[in-house]
Amino acid sequence: MSTVIVYTLSNCPTCDRARAGLAERGVEFEERRVDENEEWWEEALKYAFTVPIIISDEGDVEIGWEGEHG
Fold first, then answer.
1. pTM attached to this predicted model
2. Which of 3, 35, 67, 68 gives a 20 to 30 Å CA spacing to 13?
């Protein structure tokens, strides 16, 4: 089963809203905090220089959360 991947930073209010919003919607996701893992940081940079970055089950990429960026 595929899971949504969310790249975040530990100290990011927009990331906090994204995590909460996804949880409220019942979306299962794997959080990858880029400030805690260099490999995840390198992965995230392939998509954008800002977080959150949300990769859907289908591979769609959303940068930010509901119009906000961290």
1. 0.91
2. 3
Hey, what CATH topology would domain 4-63 get? Answer: Glutaredoxin (3.40.30)
Alpha-carbon span 28 to 38, nearest angstrom: 23
pLDDT at residue 70, as a whole number: 65
How far is Cα 26 from Cα 39, in angstroms, rounded to an integer?
Answer: 27
Output DSSP code: residue 19.
H
Nearest C-alpha neighbor of 21 from the set 60, 58, 52: 52
Handedness of CA 3, 37, 48, 20 (dihedral sign): positive
Of 18, 9, 12, residue with least CA distance to 67 = 18
Asked whether the beta carbons of 55 and 46 are under 8 A apart, the reply is no
